[in-house]
Task: inverse folding
């Protein structure tokens, strides 16, 4: 109840809440039966705040029972009755949880409009900017992002955020926004500052903020991996796993189970980068098993997580030479992303393109070159469209597909010199564009240049051999003619 005075609520709310604190959610929901609530709402228009609170309580109870659609209706009804910053933010976050980006954006806009304090404004700006970014609305996202930066700067310079948890949350949110803009070093600074604040709070015997430490530590692991600092990333992921595993044992809340699965997955990606493929595969399988501990309803809502876990599993299985198993894992990922992309192409077509890229690599290893070619072509077609919308977000991943595609045309049984040169040069051009800002682009640019140099050397050697053979052939002809 966050310190709420129960006496300020309606009798209907109090009855339901008393059942809830006794652990009887079904009895609480029976009190909040729809006809009873509607009768209550007809009584007095002056009590709109209390009626909205009843709807929000009912929505929260319905979430416990995994009745998400009905919960959403009650949340929306609450805001029809009365709109305020806190409720609008909660409703926006609920639809974010459901991955309904249009409603997420709508209710975050209401929260921004209702924000009264600077803390409320910067929180709503952060959440709305993140929602717009996820929905690929990049221009408005940048506008709100810049507003958040300026407000954050003003608050820090004037020491206007008095509560440590609030300041920590703002700093973490700013780190997330810098991360999605591929500004990894700036993101790292904000995450470190946020982590320091929450560790200071927990040191004072307030264990309620351990989940924040687990999340921010996880974020720092991801940033460190993006910066190619693999040892640092491992240390952060290990710390996040240790905290999250203990928290899940104590209270297996949805967000903690998802964080645990996500951390296991990202740790697996790190081990893959370190060439520890056995450990990586083990972690990806763990992430899938952890995710499947969630209810079927939650799994359905967040199936994009599962698609990502299967994709990573397929990649590492390909690297281990388990090509048949890898193909099955990648096909499962493709199946989920394909369905998601049909209903929300703006968000999930890029995911589908990445799986198609990985399937191209798998088919190449299986020497099914025509299937590999088709997968790469589909991937590139999608990525090119999104790279036009937001080059910073999509050009590097496009360059990786150009590079992998070029290598297909270097294979002896599928050789095409013109196509090889076309795609590897395209990849190098993009990698060089981002080399100074993005360590990953710098690394892959060097790899692509090295591959091109080897190809040129091989081509020249073959060319010299052909010339020598040609001259030898003509020499024999001339000798015969003589």
Result:
């Amino acid at each position: 109840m966050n310190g709420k005075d129960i006496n300020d609520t309606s009798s209907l709310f109090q009855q339901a809440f008393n059942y809830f604190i006794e652990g009887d959610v079904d009895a609480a929901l029976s009190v909040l039966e729809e006809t009873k609530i509607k009768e209550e709402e007809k009584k007095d228009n002056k009590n709109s705040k209390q009626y909205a609170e009843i709807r929000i309580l009912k929505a929260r109870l319905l979430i416990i029972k995994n009745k998400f659609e009905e919960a959403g209706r009650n949340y929306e009804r609450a805001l029809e009755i009365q709109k305020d910053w806190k409720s609008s933010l909660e409703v926006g976050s609920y639809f974010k949880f459901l991955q309904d980006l249009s409603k997420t954006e709508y209710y975050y806009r209401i929260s921004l409009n209702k924000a009264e304090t600077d803390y409320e404004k910067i929180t709503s700006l952060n959440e709305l900017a993140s929602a717009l970014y996820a929905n690929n609305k990049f221009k408005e996202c940048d506008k709100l992002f810049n507003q958040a930066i300026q407000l954050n700067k003003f608050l820090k310079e004037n020491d206007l955020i008095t509560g440590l948890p609030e300041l920590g949350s703002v700093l973490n949110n700013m780190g997330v926004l810098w991360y999605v803009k591929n500004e990894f070093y700036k993101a790292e600074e904000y995450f470190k500052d946020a982590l320091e604040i929450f560790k200071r709070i927990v040191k004072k015997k307030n264990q309620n903020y351990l989940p924040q430490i687990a999340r921010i530590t996880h974020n720092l692991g991801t940033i460190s991996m993006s910066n190619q600092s693999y040892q640092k990333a491992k240390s952060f992921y290990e710390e996040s796993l240790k905290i999250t595993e203990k928290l899940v044992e104590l209270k297996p809340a949805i967000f903690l189970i998802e964080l645990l699965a996500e951390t296991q997955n990202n740790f697996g990606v790190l081990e893959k980068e370190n060439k520890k493929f056995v450990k990586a595969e083990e972690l990806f399988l763990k992430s899938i098993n952890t995710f499947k501990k969630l209810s079927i309803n939650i799994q359905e809502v967040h199936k994009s997580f599962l698609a990502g876990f299967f994709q990573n599993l397929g990649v590492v299985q390909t690297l281990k030479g388990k090509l048949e198993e890898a193909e099955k894992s990648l096909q499962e990922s493709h199946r989920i992303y394909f369905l998601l992309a049909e209903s929300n192409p703006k968000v999930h077509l890029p995911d589908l393109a990445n799986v198609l890229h990985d399937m191209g690599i798998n088919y190449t290893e299986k020497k099914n070159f025509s299937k590999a070619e088709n997968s790469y072509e589909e991937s590139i077609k999608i990525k090119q469209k999104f790279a036009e919308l937001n080059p910073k977000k999509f050009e590097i991943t496009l360059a990786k597909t150009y590079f992998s595609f070029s290598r297909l045309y270097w294979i002896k049984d599928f050789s095409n010199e013109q196509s090889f040169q076309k795609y590897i040069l395209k990849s190098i051009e993009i990698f060089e564009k981002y080399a100074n800002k993005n360590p990953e682009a710098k690394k892959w640019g060097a790899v692509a240049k090295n591959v091109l140099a080897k190809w040129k050397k091989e081509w020249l050697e073959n060319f010299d051999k052909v010339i020598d053979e040609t001259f030898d052939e003509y020499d024999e002809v001339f000798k015969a003619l003589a």
Q: What stands out?
A: The CA atoms of residues 75 and 175 lie 29 Å apart.
